[in-house]
Write a structure and sequence with these properties.
This protein is mainly alpha-helical and about 130 residues long. It has one domain: Winged helix-like DNA-binding domain superfamily/Winged helix DNA-binding domain (Arc Repressor Mutant, subunit A). It contains four helices and three strands. It is rod-shaped. The protein starts with a helix and ends in a 7-residue tail after the last strand.
C-alpha cells in the first residue's frame, strides 16, 4: 500500500507545480485577475500539502513494514538454525516472494550469508553462527 501512496504523493506534488506555474506566469504578465491568481496559489499549496502528507505516510508505512519483515527474518534465523527461504519469509511476513527476495538480498549485503539453491531451484539463505543467537 505504501507504494501506491508514494506514487500518488509524487503525482499530486508534481501537479502542484502546474498551478504554481500558471500563477507565476499570470502574475508576471499581469493577465490574470487577482481572484484567479489567489486560486492558483491556494490550489498549488493544497496539492503540495496533500502530496507531502502522502509521501510522509508512505515513508512511515515502509519503515513499519521493513521492521516487521526484519522481525520475521530474525525469528526464522533463530528457529531454523540460520536457514531462511524466500517462501518462508513471504508466507510469515505476508508479502510477495519478490519483495521477500529483495529484502533478503539487501540484508545479505550487510550480513555473513551463504546463498544456495535448493532442489526446486529457489534460493536458500544461510546466515552465519554469530546471527543465530542475536
Amino acid at each position: 500500500m505504501y507504494r501506491i501512496k508514494l506514487l500518488i504523493g509524487i503525482l499530486v506534488a508534481a501537479f502542484s507545480s502546474v498551478y504554481l506555474l500558471f500563477g507565476v506566469v499570470g502574475w508576471e504578465h499581469e493577465s490574470m485577475k487577482a481572484a484567479d491568481l489567489i486560486t492558483c496559489f491556494i490550489l498549488a499549496s493544497l496539492h503540495l500539502g496533500i502530496g507531502s502528507w502522502l509521501l510522509f505516510t508512505s515513508l512511515s508505512e515502509y519503515r513499519r513494514e521493513h521492521r516487521r519483515v526484519e522481525d520475521v527474518v530474525r525469528r526464522l534465523i533463530d528457529s531454523s538454525g540460520g536457514r531462511v527461504t524466500i517462501a518462508d519469509v513471504a508466507k510469515y511476513a505476508g508479502i510477495s516472494e519478490e519483495d521477500a527476495h529483495e529484502h533478503l538480498e539487501r540484508r545479505s549485503k550487510h550480513d555473513v550469508v551463504i546463498v544456495m539453491q535448493n532442489t526446486a531451484g529457489s534460493d536458500v539463505f544461510f546466515f552465519g553462527q554469530q546471527y543465530w543467537n542475536n
